[in-house]
Amino acid sequence: MKFHATLLAISLTASVAKAEVPKVFAGLFEQDVPVHGQIGTVTPPEEINKYVAKVETAARKDPKWFKEFSDNSKPGVPLPYDERLGLTKEEYDQYLVLWNKREFKPNEDVMVLLRKGSGNTWSIIATGGASAISTLRFSEKEDVFHSPDGDLKRIEDIKADSASIFGEWTGREWKFEQETEYDKTKENFAIGRFTDNKFGLLVYRVQSVSAAGSRLQDTNVVVRFTLGKAGQNKTSDQGAGKSSTEKTDGAKPESGKGKSTKSGSGKAKTTDNP
Predict the structure, then answer these.
(1) pLDDT category of residue 233 using cuts at 50, 70 and 90
(2) How far apart are the C-alpha atoms of 123 and 204, rounded to whole Å?
(3) Could you give the CA distance from residue 264 to residue 274 in angstroms, rounded to a whole number?
(4) In the chain, what is the straight-line distance between the N-terminal and C-terminal CA atoms, in Å?
(5) What percent of the chain is modeled with pLDDT above 90?
(6) Sign of the dihedral through C-alpha 23, 136, 139, 208
(7) Which residue from 76, 79, 129, 204 has the least number of CB within 10 angstroms?
(8) Rounded distance, CA 160 to CA 23, Å?
């Protein structure tokens, strides 16, 4: 495959001398070793949409209450029941049943590779739709990811609940935020693994809006990659070979850290939206 050849070429031209991999990448990547991954989304059954529509209607009727209720609820998981959500208790329970049937649906096979750069920095080189991740440079000494927008600084570690959009996973996250008289930008990058240790996860989000409220950029990349030898230099069912749909109560992805997504209406919502 073309993306495989590209990453293989990079790995072959890399320095023979291997450096010690920074702790944030340990157990996820080896230096200059291509790994199979998939870009995808987590989607519950379509039947959930009728309940989502009712919650959205209720939110429009009382936006102040809905915002306060969302802000004060546990982040990263469905909102707790309240009759003001516009659902009966029976409807809410059915909503949860459908939510628990959500699946990771891959839409593009990619390759990712950890490479040491100049100035003691590290990059995750990614192909295809995940290539935006390649613009980041990690400095172990500063514990910072440098991006074209600015420096993403380390925030609270991720320990996502099994009911979160991506399921149960742990990891680390970095964040950049800037507001000027012209625009407002928020950028997050997270890396981690699912609790069954079969898959790793990369989540990269960039959002920018103008002072007038027009959306200037909205990049959202979620990559699930196979851990260990199964994902290295060979096709695996969950890697770059077959596109598969998998329920998220096994190894399953989430957007940003455990606190950075909220799923009150059944849709993955970033609470850090500008």
Answers:
(1) low
(2) 14
(3) 18
(4) 38
(5) 67
(6) negative
(7) 129
(8) 20
